Amino acid sequence: MILQAAALSVLLCLVHSFTIQGPFEKSEEYSGNTIEDDEFSVSTLLEKANVNVGKNLDEPLVMFGDIAVPTGLQNADPCTARGCLWPKATDGNVYVPFRIANAFSQRERSTIIAGLQSFAESTCIRFTPFNRQRDFVDIMSLSGCFSFVGRRGRGQTVSLSRRGCVFRQIIQHELLHALGFNHEQTRSDRDQNVRILLENVMRGTESNFRRIQTRNLGTPYDYNSVMHYGRFAFSRNRRPTIIPIPDENVSIGRATEMSPIDILRVNRLYRCNSTASRPDLKPVQRNHFL
Ligand SMILES: [Zn+2]
Questions:
Q1: What positions does the domain Peptidase M12A occupy (predicted)?
Q2: I need a surface site. Which of 104, 110, 201, 235 has the fewest CB within 10 A?
Q3: Of these residues, 39, 174, 206, 257, which one is catalytic?
Q4: CATH code at 95?
Q5: Tell me: the pLDDT tens digits for 153-165?
Q6: 177 annotated binding-site participant
Q7: What is the count of structural domains for the chain?
């Protein structure tokens, strides 16, 4: 009860500070790049919600902030071993079955469903209620916010803890992982766009800043991606860990929903404009992932 009250007050406090510091009410001197202003960035929310991740042995191994990895597999990206796209139906849509655990309240459930449906507004991804399909996303409230990258086969956990993960940007972020996307700041071309300050990174969390040979699908690096961490992600000393270059003052990692480039990437990865289903193209063909 005390814990619940504490969690609620933290949440109210977050909402409150977010409200009074809304982007349209800031004074001209406002830099937008202080640690306090990052209160609602995806990575801040993830860090707060994920403090207890890994303490429950029944849960998947979570690395790289919020990416679940199969136990024993040291290579972070499961997609490198095999294809991980969700299959495309003959009508050109990509149906991703989902199940939502009963642990969520009606209101949380509605927020989650709205987040899932947001994909249908701008992409060919159609999250549809689980109906005994073989592969599906199994949305649960475990001890943080995390997801596997790409389709894993069978029911795959996407954890959206009731304590801190049921927000639109987090829901979209975790489902973008499930669709096959990594964090923006791990992109192969990130060093031309950001500088990583490892000296400010909390010991033991450096792996969050590794670079991956991603397929970038012809899209530009996007500071506003919902997959981009904030400037102070995993900071051990309240100093920045990610600085945009060449202009240090550009704001990063503050998306509150998918950016136009996030949407473009989904459309490119899943070839959303093509309705033709090619029988020779297996849905898990490896060279189409990320
Ligand atoms: Zn993530």
A1: 75-273
A2: 110
A3: 174
A4: 3.40.390.10
A5: 899 999 999 999 9
A6: yes
A7: 1
Cβ atoms < 10 Å from Cβ of 55: 9
Distance 130 CA to ligand 1 centre (A): 24
Q: Near ion ligand 1, which residues have CB within 5 Å? A: 66
Q: At residue 133, does pLDDT exceed 60?
A: yes
Residue 22 included in any domain:
no
Distance from residue 12's CA to the centre of ligand 1 (Å): 24
For ligand 1, the distance from its centroid to the CA atom of residue 20, given in whole angstroms, is 27
Query: What pTM did the predictor assign?
Result: 0.79
Residue 5 domain-assigned (yes or no): no
Q: In angstroms, what is the span from residue 182 Cα to ligand 1's centroid?
A: 7
183 is in an annotated binding site: yes
The boundaries of the domain holding residue 183 are 36-270
> How much is the mean pLDDT over the chain?
80
Domain contains 24:
no
156 belongs to a structural domain: yes
Q: Mark whether 206 is an active-site residue.
A: no
The residue type of 69 is V
Tell whether 16 is in a known binding site: no
- State the pLDDT at residue 42: 85
pLDDT range class, residue 37, cuts 50, 70, 90? confident
Q: How confident is the model at residue 32 (pLDDT cuts 50, 70, 90)?
A: low
